[in-house]
Amino acid sequence: MAEIWTVVDHSGGEPSKVSLQMVTAGRKLAEQMGHDLAGIFLGTGWETAKEKLAKHALPKAYVFESQDFEDYLVQPAIDAIVKLAQEHQPAAILFASVPLGKDLASGVAAKLESGGLADVTDIEVDGDRLTCRMDVFGGATITKCQVVGDPQVICVKPNAFVAQEAAADLAEERIEAEITDDAKAARIVERVQEEAGGRPSVEEAAIIVSGGRGLGGPEHFSLVEELADVLGAGVGASRAAVDAGWYPHQNQVGQTGKTVSPQLYIAVGISGAIQHRAGMQTSKTIVAINKDAEAPIFNLSDFGVVGDLFEVLPKLTEELKKRKGG
Ligand code: FAD
What we know:
The chain contains nine helices and 17 strands. The chain is of the alpha/beta class. α4 (about 75-90) crosses α5 (about 100-110). The longest helix is centred in the first third of the chain and has 17 residues, at about 15-35.
């Protein structure tokens, strides 16, 4: 039986959220297509990864456990995946649509003379093809595309799917990769861990509360942060707020910031300019709080509150705290 593969995005064996979301998505696709699902793990820390992946019902994994995948750029991993794909002929390979995943996917698709799609936010089965949704041209156009070559290489955007826990025995097949000197041509000499802070990053967060120019100053971002903390959310910002120096650039959402697809996006004091929408319009549920009933953000919102954020936010945060019993 053909397989669908999901390449585990991880840090030292700790799978990223999108990795677990891809397992759930992959399981459903494999079921619908009558295929098996298998994970591909490259790097170190397999035992940690295995525990989490098994809890999400990954039935099988090909494990390349070697420090070399951590020490060199993507070529050793591309070579390993390509060789395995030539042997097993998987129907599709899912990668995380993050910089490293996209780098790997493009190398694998090129070497296998297949085709690849990035920033995919939804996948439907159409016979033996996967129809993928992508938002392009700054989010102004929604496209549905299929890879015509094989295997279908697809990069799944974080939070496009919800990870669901389910029990399964994970069978592992250990593979010794032969890494050529050519593949080791570029070595990583240093890694610097970005300050994580206490909140999830906007790329990882399932809920994001974003603040814009309507906040009126950096000190009022505390209102956004308080709401975010009650919800366990990440904090985003519009470019206007970032350019004014109110919030760090790493939190900017939009065309020149991060592209996010959380389950819930709450836009506070953000007008909804096309460049902002480009980064968040694939969010599953969008809530806007804005005092201007004509603000364009309401055109793409599922729920809208027309009101002064300085009145609405404290009340909303307080009510949520009460409901959570805190
Ligand atoms: P504004 O447009 O000024 O909106 C503020 C909103 O707050 C208004 O709707 C107002 O009604 C509301 N408001 C004010 N006071 C209150 C209150 N008390 N209570 C409730 N609501 C209130 N923008 C991005 O966000 N991300 C990007 O990545 C990005 N990239 C860009 C790239 C290019 C090439 C260009 C040209 C622009 C880009 N922009 C980007 C900028 C974008 O065009 C907008 O200028 C920006 O998004 C506006 O930010 P804002 O919504 O916070 O501010």
